[in-house]
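Regression test case RT-17, inverse folding.

Input:
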């Protein structure tokens, strides 16, 4: 999976759950998903450019997921939906997955439950040294991507902002969800998300 500058990505929990519910009712709409979503306005957009932006993000997430995963996304409460959406984001956004895997998981295993701005900056410096794609991103893009990482993890219920730091939160996920993800998902992502 390649690195992408995710400067225009957003969490889109409501929208992805709307799409998951529609697919659960009729999986065949996946073949003409863009037209269906446009006709039904399930992405709640007023302009074509806003629709296209949301559609690109959501279709990329949905296309990488099993039917069983999409059904879970459509049925579960919003807390589980947040977890599943972050899983879908990790599935298609390498920078988010690696932050979860290399920073959050390592800190949690070391019983260090706090992140500071320096942790985010050091991660981006490390990625810039490891990969030319990241290295060639502008400084403004790198800063915006770090903001996106923070926002995704806060919206996914993995971080909570506190004064001058962020507190790492371990999600509580029911066993039946974990069993389905272990069977139909990617174990590497699941391992990173569960520390």
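Golden output:
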């Amino acid at each position: 999976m390649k690195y992408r500058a995710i400067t225009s990505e957003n969490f889109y929990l409501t929208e992805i759950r709307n799409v998951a519910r529609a697919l659960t009712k009729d999986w065949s709409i996946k073949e003409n998903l863009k037209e269906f979503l446009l006709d039904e306005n399930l992405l709640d957009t007023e302009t074509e450019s806003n629709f296209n932006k949301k559609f690109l993000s959501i279709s990329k997430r949905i296309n990488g997921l099993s039917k069983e995963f999409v059904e879970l996304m459509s049925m579960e409460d919003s807390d589980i939906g947040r977890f599943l959406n972050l899983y879908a984001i990790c599935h298609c956004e390498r920078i988010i997955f690696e932050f979860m895997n290399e920073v959050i998981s390592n800190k949690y295993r070391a019983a260090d439950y706090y992140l500071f701005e320096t942790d985010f900056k050091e991660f981006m410096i490390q990625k810039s040294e490891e990969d030319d794609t990241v290295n060639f991103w502008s400084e403004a893009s790198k800063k915006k991507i770090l903001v996106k990482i923070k926002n995704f993890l806060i919206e996914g219920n993995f971080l909570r902002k506190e004064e001058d730091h962020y507190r790492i939160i371990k999600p509580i996920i029911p066993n039946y969800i974990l069993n389905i993800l272990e069977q139909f998902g990617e174990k590497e992502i699941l391992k990173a998300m569960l520390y």
